Amino acid sequence: MTRAAVLPAVGAPLRIDDIDLPAPGPGQVRVRLAAAGVCHSDLSLADGTMRVPVPAVLGHEGAGTVVAVGEGVGQPAVGDEVVLNWAPSCGACPACADGEVWLCANALAGASAVYATASDGTPLHPGLNVAAFAQETVVAANCVLPLPPGVPLTDAALLGCAVLTGYGAVHNAARVRAGESVAVLGIGGVGLAVLQAARIAGAAEVVAVDVSPHKEDLARAAGATSYVVASDTTAKEIRKLTGGRGADVAIDCVGRGDTIRTAWGSTRRGGRTTVVGIGGKDQQVTFNSLEIFTWGRTLAGCVYGNSDPVRDLPVIGGHITAGRFDLGLMVTDRIGLDDVPAALDAMPAGRGGRALVLF
Which of 122, 243, 327, 343 lies at 20 to 30 Å from 5 by C-alpha? Predict the structure, then answer.
């Protein structure tokens, strides 16, 4: 038996339960979690913004140690420290064939499987493939990646989503160039990763935007050169801070209709607006035809930072060990498994950066 945070149904509160986790089958590995990050996507799964089979054990951002392997698994081996990869590429679909592994058509195929049972015998699904809100989990072998050398195992949990997403948004999706100006809307876990990645990219001006005035010190420590408390005049303030033109790149880490519109309005003529945050189907964004022509901006979505984790994780690990990227800076709360339901409930208030579950 292992303890886990179970989502009984969409919209229901999480409950901490003892679950029966079987031994790994062919092609699977069992991982003892060291830590798991509480991501806004977990809230989106819990409230139905994103649909996954339920009942499920949530949590998709984690790191731990392999404690058992199933038949046919050559790597990883027992004792290896690994980062969970919630979106493994199949290598066979058209997106994978085109090198766009972040768009893999089969990345979430494992989420529909039954991987464990609750204490009352109810079959459980692994939320986003990996079910990281648990002391241990069983995943497909391609759902784990080697821990980059020199990276602390607990903080490495953040690599599995926030860091790959934020770093990738800057370097893969928006392709920020040295000397450019960048506006970042939403300074949570992903936003803090975006700020650090923009600094690594050599951005000259980095404007952080959030509804909370209390995040300014945190944002500046991550690389922001200016801080704006979100309001109806946010776009004007960003344009003022970027020489009156607007930012070369605006990255929205919130995903609501109004924040996407603000990011678009903050971007200079011919600039790039990248949307990282996940909004609901009810969130609408409106543009008129003339402004699309006049401003010549591009608006693009961004899935998992448009990252190839196999390629990008070692690069990010190098930045961490060289002191250019600070994982610890992103963690504002270190909690236990029992605190996960409260952490999800508190998330809409937008306080702090990442909450990290320590096992």
Answer: 327
Collapse the DSSP code of 245 into the 3-class scheme (helix H, G, I; strand E, B; otherwise coil) and give the result. coil
Sorted by sequence, the CB contacts under 8 Å of residue 317 that are 6+ apart come out as 148, 149, 150, 151, 159
Written as six digits, the tokens of 296 are: 């010549």
φ/ψ (deg, to 5) at 191: -60, -40
CA 248 from chain centre, in angstroms, equals 23
Cα 186 to Cα 121, 147, 246, 340: the distances in Å are 41, 28, 18, 22
Strand partners, 126: 57
Considering only CA atoms, which of 112, 113, 86, 120 is closest in space to residue 15? 120
Instruction: Mark 135-171 as b/e (b = at least 16 C-beta within 10 Å).
Output: bbbbbbbbbbbebbeebebbbbbbbbbbbbbbbbbbb
Whole-prediction pTM: 0.96
CA dihedral 89, 177, 39, 90 (to 10 degrees): 0
Q: What is the pLDDT along the chain (359 residues), one digit of tens a residue?
A: 899 999 999 989 999 999 999 999 999 999 999 999 999 888 888 888 888 899 999 999 999 999 999 999 999 999 999 999 999 999 999 999 999 999 999 999 999 999 999 999 999 999 999 999 999 999 999 999 999 999 999 999 999 999 999 999 999 999 999 999 999 999 999 999 999 999 999 999 999 999 999 999 999 999 999 999 999 999 999 999 999 999 999 999 999 999 999 999 999 999 999 999 988 888 899 999 999 999 999 999 999 999 999 999 999 999 999 999 999 999 999 999 999 999 888 887 777 889 999 99
Residue type, 149: P
Residue of 73, 66, 59 whose CA lies nearest to 125: 59
